[in-house]
């Protein structure tokens, strides 16, 4: 007999098996510290106590109280939302051929053979951008200029965008990057976000990784993208039947 199927206790006819206690252990914070025979007994005692509390709650009809019913509805609604999302997502079940095709179609993003290290300063209008560009030309440190003027969250780190593959930035920004030599700073570049002053710090060229090397990454990326597509398709289908009022 499997030791994990061992019956440890009964409360009012409710059987508590070792498996139940182990599941309970895995679902409580710091449960790993009970991973010994004494710990199993402690948790089994606690499960017995909770069953006694539960029986008493039913006896006193706490489940009929409005406060409990409201809490139960919130829990049910959240579980149902998660289950509905699961039903949408379960349709995404890619084959190896699906993953290979996705890899070939998106190889540059999944396994980029060209990456950039860059910083930028983002402002709202061209006059301000030109003024900052001139200040930098006259000797203002780029990082200090970013901290002082940029409206982008990257300002706090001196405008640093880190290292990223080709194609993840908007076209105008990418075109600005491709016009620069390493160490060079661009004149203001307009995009949908405002005006960027870009500093190209480095370019790295590598051979793209083979599909088998990045298969798990391809799988996770595919799931994320295709699940989002299914989610948006479902919303488009059902939103016309919803009465929505937004006040923001």
From TrEMBL:
Residues annotated as domain PpiC: 113-202
SUPFAM superfamilies cross-referenced by the UniProt entry: FKBP-like (SSF54534), Triger factor/SurA peptide-binding domain-like (SSF109998)
Alphabetically ordered keywords of this record: Isomerase, Rotamase, Signal
EC number of the protein: 5.2.1.8
Any GO MF annotation of the entry: peptidyl-prolyl cis-trans isomerase activity
Domain of life: Bacteria
Catalytic reaction list: [protein]-peptidylproline (omega=180) = [protein]-peptidylproline (omega=0)
InterPro entries on file: PPIase_dom_sf, PPIase_PpiC, PrsA_foldase, Trigger_fact/SurA_dom_sf
Protein name: peptidylprolyl isomerase
Organism: Anaerococcus lactolyticus ATCC 51172
């Amino acid at each position: 007999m499997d030791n994990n199927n061992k019956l440890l206790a009964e409360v009012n006819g409710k059987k508590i098996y070792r498996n139940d206690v182990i599941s309970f252990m895995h679902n409580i914070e710091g449960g790993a510290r009970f991973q010994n025979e004494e710990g199993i007994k402690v948790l089994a005692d606690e499960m017995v106590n909770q069953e006694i509390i539960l029986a008493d709650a039913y006896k006193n009809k706490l489940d009929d109280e409005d406060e409990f019913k409201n809490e139960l509805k919130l829990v049910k609604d959240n579980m149902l939302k998660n289950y509905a999302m699961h039903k949408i997502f379960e349709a995404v079940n890619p084959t190896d051929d699906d993953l290979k095709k996705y890899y070939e179609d998106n190889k540059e993003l999944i396994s980029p053979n060209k990456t950039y290290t860059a910083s930028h300063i983002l402002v709202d209008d061209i006059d301000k951008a030109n003024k900052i560009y001139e200040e930098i030309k006259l000797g203002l440190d780029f990082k200090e200029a970013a901290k002082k003027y940029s409206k982008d969250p990257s300002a706090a780190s001196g405008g640093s965008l880190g290292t990223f593959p080709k194609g993840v930035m908007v076209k105008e920004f990418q075109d600005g990057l491709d016009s620069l030599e390493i160490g060079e700073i661009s004149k203001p570049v307009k995009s949908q976000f405002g005006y960027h002053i870009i500093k190209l710090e480095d370019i790295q060229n590598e051979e793209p990784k083979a599909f088998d090397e990045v298969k798990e990454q391809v799988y996770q990326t595919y799931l994320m993208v295709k699940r989002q597509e299914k989610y948006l398709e479902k919303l488009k289908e059902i939103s016309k039947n919803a009465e929505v009022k937004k006040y923001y």
